[in-house]
Amino acid sequence: MNQTRVFVTGGTGFVGTNLVRLLLQEGYVVKALVRPNSRLDNLQGLDVELVQGSLGDRNLDQAMAGCQGLFHVAAHYSLWKKDRDILHEYNVLGTRNVLAAARSAGIERTVYTSSVAAIGVKQGAIADESYQSPVEKLIGAYKQSKYWAEQEAVNAAQSGQNIVIVNPSTPIGAWDIKPTPTGDIVLRFLRRQMPFYLHTGLNLIHVQDAAWGHLLAYQKGKTGDRYILGHQNMTLKQLLDQLEQITGLPAPSRSIPAWIPLSVASIDEYLLAKLGKTPSVAIDGVRMAGQLMYYDASKAVQELGIPQTPIVAALKDAVEWFVTKHYA
Q1: Predicted model pTM
Q2: Of 83 and 226, the one with more pLDDT
Q3: 3-state secondary structure the chain
C-alpha cells in the first residue's frame, strides 16, 4: 500500500482538485494548503488534511514537515492590467517561497505546475519544450509572471533541488469551479450566449490526463526538465462544432474580426475601469486570441506515458458537470 505523503498547493482549483482525487485514488496521503477565504466545494468529502495559509507564509516548511513530495499547482490567474503586481507577488514571489520551504522541510521531490503560457507561441508553427518565446513577447502580465515563476523552479533545480516542471495546455473537464476561460466558453455556449466566434486555436487536454501528467512527472520525470501536458490542437470553431454534436445546440456560424472585441476591451479597461466599473473584456485576452496557441506534447507521451483521452470526452464531462452543478 502506497503511504507516500504529499503536500499540494492549489488543491481547491480545477487542475488541483483533479490531481488530489487522483493522488487519493492511487493511495497517496494528501495534505493541502488552502487560503482562509477559499471555496472548499471541490474538496468536500475527500480524505485530505487541510492547512490554512498562503504561498507567502514564513512557516510553510512546518506545514510541509513529514511530507516526501510537493505539487505546487497554485497560481493567480488574471488578464487584467491592474493585477500585474498581485500576479508577481503570488506567482513569482509565492513560488520562490514555496520552493524554499520545500528545501527547508526536506521535500524529496517537487512537481512545479507552470503553463504553456510561460513557453509562448511559435508563430506559424507548433511549439515544444525546446522553444522559448522572449519574455517581452509574452502577451500580458499573467504569461510573464508564469515565465518568471518557472525560472524560480529552473534556478532551484540548478541549485540541486529535485524539481520537475510541467506545462499544462488548456485543460477541460469536470470540477471547473470558477470557471476557467475555456470552461467559460463551454458555459456561454450552453447558455446560448455565443452568436459569433473568433479565429483562434488552442491545445486542449482532458483535465484528468493533466492530473495524470503531474503524477507521472513525479514518478518518472527528469529533474530540471519541463513537460508539456497537452493533447489536441484545434480551432475554436472546431471546439464549438464538437459542442454542437454533444448538446444538439447550434454552434455559431459567423466569425467576428478581432478589432471589434479589441475595441470593446479598450473601452472597458481604459474608460469603464477608471469610472469604477468592472470591465467585461480584457485587452490581453483578446490579443492572445489573435494567435494560434498550438503545442506538441509528444515528449510527455513518450517519456511519461501521459494518457490522451479524446477531447470530445473531455467536453462531454465538462458539459455534464456544469449542467449537474446548475451552472447552465
Answers
A1: 0.91
A2: 226
A3: CCCCEEEEECCCCHHHHHHHHHHHHCCCEEEEEECCCCCCHHHCCCCCEEEECCCCCCCHHHHHCCCCEEEECCCCCCCCHHHHHHHHHHHHHHHHHHHHHHHHHCCCEEEEECCHHHHCCCCCCCECCCCCCCHHHCCHHHHHHHHHHHHHHHHHHHCCCCEEEEEECEEECCCCCCCCHHHHHHHHHHCCCCCEECCCEEEEEEHHHHHHHHHHHHHHCCCCCEEEECCEEEEHHHHHHHHHHHHCCCCCCEECCCHHHHHHHHHHHHHHHHHCCCCCCCHHHHHHHCCEECECCHHHHHHHCCCCCCHHHHHHHHHHHHHHCCCC
